[in-house]
């Protein structure tokens, strides 16, 4: 009874046919619109205990195919009770993760094309659109020309899965570059002399844990350096650390500077750090995973000054630029240094146009890659630069609104500085009382926050996350916090 | 003029509202159904030169938002001319990549929920569904109980992005385990004694390039070992290599065995290899990226015998099990060994239920992760085990059909053995004539193949890839090959 189904049924397994997909897919589109438009009605944090889900479904896969309406029904029964709603206007934990309608639609197309873009030949559009939209994005950030595919040199951008992977790729490329410098013709990825264990990477003590992890994977040492009173890593601190390590016979080779740390959204001084790195021959990578999106606004672009000293730069459009996860944009000045670190080239992946255009598999850890530039392309076109800037500005404004509310209450203090969409705050007093407040807030479940700790000071982080967050939600969150502060204060009495 | 739009418009950027999304999303669902149902009308390999795409679109992002119908129009104008159609029944390159309607619909939901599942608390459903469906899948493969989350020990499955990442995770975990064994209390991820550069990993000469790459990232040595006449790595060969390396003062620590090599779909002897690894204290990882899906059929399950000796096992449901990329399933016997290798635990990621349930961020390279188990769940339910088995059997049957056609033509020979859905073949004669045939086939563009080379013998690979491939397509492909063989033979005269 359908246009395509009958032919299929004759030759193929009893799987979903195109007509069923049209109905199922459209029903899911409606479900998704309803979910997101009514997300205010759901509490941001779920009320389940570990192991809740396995009680709700069978312990083995069905032998026979089920019907899709039964699967649809199970979304509310099985899945939703255990979802942390990152797109609730009452979700203020971690950092934002993007979720926009244009990106969702682009992903439908990406899934349907379903190409694996490891080389140009494996799907030319996949490589080429990525080159063009990464250049678009580089121009929006006013990155120096040397980071563009369209420039003369070997620079360019690539989509990584996560900032963690970008940091790892940068560190491994720097390690390979340094091995080449030291060993020359005797280069090996696994040199006998124990050189790698002498290599030292640096970052600030507030850098993301992924830097430590990249060092651990790369088998190099890592130093978490002290920051100044604004939680910013300064040039002098790096300079001293390099000198000390050199005196100990070690080999400084890599710095990961952070613009917008996860704990407090502080900014390392990349102008100073870049100068030191150039003088001392270190690879400077800049991780601006969260903050990077803000640099498309002229008023925030100065925070990126000094990027010209970096060998590589990364931020996550999947955080604050409306492109659904995963889409981490990374630019390098010399892509040959990435290829050097990763190139192992079997015949079944070679093609006639090799060398004329990047084979992005040499730019990252996985071999396979999805057609992720489609969602970036859809988002940039359907928001326009102005639309994306407005979103950034709205969120920063809401953060300052929350900051003012905190400041107006004598029981509280702001921790660090509010620059973008994150407000760190605490009850004036012990860590314990702040820990109790955090637990009370999350147990209450009307809003959701996570804490952090810097220099042994425990504080709460209020991040403006969901695109639907408005002024009234900020006010609501503050009222909840005040109410629960009173509650724990009363309990204590 | 819409149900939700007006409120949005007042406070938010001029972005797509829910009503527009409903129309856009549904139009995309129809586009996708039309694309896939009519994919036979498109040539599998595009006729473009490097740089084609940048001529078709602007060189910067628009300032103002565009309209979605204009984006829709550009799909056929800009994207499709440069797409390699992996789901064309005439595409026989590489290995299959999955593409099914249930998985596409599941991804819409995954995108909309848009949670980042790095810890249990960040979205309990994301972690828990993954645990359950990986157990479902483990049971379908008849993996030993020790690989199940529901078993007593510390085993379990996790979704990685790609098999390359699974191999890397296994190698790094093995490296850490061995460092612990050697250094004891003095353990360090970056030990001073140059121990890591003494470590040796092994795989067969036909193993995927990602093993070599994992070794390179891990800064350990790697040996590509010779295989037997069936391109299978045997226990004795490994035993000899271990002994030789030990004599040279090196530290054998890891074997990646392959079930279904990329070049020829050959199978290492994991029963023999596993015995050697257990005796010699090596971590055996099994990479069954492509072939693993077939093991859900009882008739192919014996190929997996010996998996009980493995510390880790991986295959890609995103290749041959109807789950769109990326979904690489990995199981380990002792997940603590993964956490050991990757655990760096900042406060902002801690939560109350830590330890009670896996935080999957410790099981892989990236921190962030999508809700990928949804597509596995949808696929397993909407195909059922029988539906998935039928697909495997259909493809193997088609491969044997192609094999018979090749064998019936005296000019050709089969290279290796046809076990699953890959047929390696060549013109009896020089590598050059086979290279010319391959180039002629791909220039012709009616079908698409890639070559490989083993022991200096160049051959063509015919993989049954798309779910829509039928007997008539196999016949068509062979007719094209015969026609073009005649053409190059005539040209030579």
Automatic annotation (TrEMBL), chains A, B:
For this UniProt record, the keywords arranged alphabetically read as follows: Catecholamine biosynthesis, Decarboxylase, Lyase, Pyridoxal phosphate
Q: EC number(s) of the enzyme? A: 4.1.1.28
GO process annotations (BP):
amino acid metabolic process; carboxylic acid metabolic process; catecholamine biosynthetic process; serotonin biosynthetic process
Molecular function terms from GO: aromatic-L-amino-acid decarboxylase activity; pyridoxal phosphate binding
EC top class, as a word? lyase
Question: Which residue positions does N6-(pyridoxal phosphate)lysine occur at?
Answer: 319
| InterPro entries recorded | Aromatic_deC, PyrdxlP-dep_de-COase, PyrdxlP-dep_Trfase, PyrdxlP-dep_Trfase_major, PyrdxlP-dep_Trfase_small, Pyridoxal-P_BS
Q: Which SUPFAM superfamilies match?
A: PLP-dependent transferases
Q: Which cofactor does it need?
A: pyridoxal 5'-phosphate
| Any one GO CC term of the record | cytoplasm
Q: Ribosomal protein among the record's keywords?
A: no
* Superkingdom, taxonomy of origin: Eukaryota
Q: Kindly indicate whether the keyword Lyase belongs to this entry.
A: yes
* Homology family: Belongs to the group II decarboxylase family.
What is said about its interaction partners and assembly? Homodimer.
Q: What is this protein called?
A: Aromatic-L-amino-acid decarboxylase
Q: State the species of origin.
A: Magallana gigas (Pacific oyster)
């Amino acid at each position: 009874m359908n246009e395509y189904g009958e032919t299929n049924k004759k030759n193929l397994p009893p799987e979903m046919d195109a007509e069923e997909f049209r109905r199922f897919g459209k029903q899911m589109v409606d479900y998704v619109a309803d979910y997101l438009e009514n997300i205010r009605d759901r509490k941001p944090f779920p009320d389940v205990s570990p192991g809740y889900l396995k009680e709700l479904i069978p312990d083995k896969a069905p032998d026979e195919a089920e019907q899709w309406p039964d699967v649809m029904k199970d979304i509310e029964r099985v899945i939703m009770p255990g979802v942390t709603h990152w797109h609730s206007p009452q979700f203020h934990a971690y950092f934002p993760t993007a979720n926009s309608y244009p990106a969702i639609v682009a992903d439908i197309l990406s899934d349907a094309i379903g190409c694996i873009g490891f080389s140009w030949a494996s799907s030319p559009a996949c490589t080429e659109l990525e080159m063009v939209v990464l250049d678009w994005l580089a121009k929006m950030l006013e990155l120096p020309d040397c980071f563009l595919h369209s420039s003369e040199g070997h620079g360019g951008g690539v989509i990584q899965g996560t900032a963690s992977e970008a940091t790892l790729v940068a560190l491994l490329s720097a390690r390979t570059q340094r091995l080449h410098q030291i060993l020359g013709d005797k280069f090996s990825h696994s040199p006998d002399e124990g050189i790698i264990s002498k290599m030292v990477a640096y970052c600030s003590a507030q850098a993301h844990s992924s830097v430590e992890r990249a060092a651990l994977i790369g088998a190099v040492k890592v130093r978490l350096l002290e920051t100044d009173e604004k939680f910013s890593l300064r040039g002098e601190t790096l300079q001293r650390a390099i000198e000390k390590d050199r005196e100990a016979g070690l080999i400084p080779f890599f710095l990961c500077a952070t613009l917008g740390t996860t704990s407090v959204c502080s900014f390392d001084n990349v102008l100073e750090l870049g100068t030191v790195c150039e003088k001392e021959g270190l690879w400077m990578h800049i991780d601006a995973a969260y903050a990077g999106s803000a640099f498309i606004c002229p008023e925030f672009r100065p925070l990126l000054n000094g990027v010209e000293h970096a060998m590589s730069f990364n931020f996550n459009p999947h955080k604050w630029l409306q492109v659904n996860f995963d889409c981490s944009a990374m630019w390098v000045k010399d892509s040959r240094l990435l290829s050097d670190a990763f190139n192992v080239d079997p015949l079944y992946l070679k093609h006639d146009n090799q060398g004329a255009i990047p084979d992005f598999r040499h730019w990252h850890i996985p071999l396979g890659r999805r057609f992720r530039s489609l969602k970036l392309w859809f988002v940039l076109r359907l928001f326009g630069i102005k639309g994306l800037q407005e979103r950034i500005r709205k969120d920063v404004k809401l953060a300052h609104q929350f900051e003012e509310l905190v400041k107006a209450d004598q029981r509280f203090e702001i921790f660090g500085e509010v620059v973008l969409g994150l407000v760190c705050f605490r009850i004036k007093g012990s860590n314990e009382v702040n820990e109790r407040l955090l637990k009370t807030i999350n147990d209450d479940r009307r809003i959701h926050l996570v804490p952090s700790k810097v220099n042994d000071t425990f504080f709460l982080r209020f991040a403006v996350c969901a695109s639907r967050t408005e002024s009234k939600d900020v006010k609501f969150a503050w009222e909840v916090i005040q109410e629960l502060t009173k509650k724990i204060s009363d309990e204590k009495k």
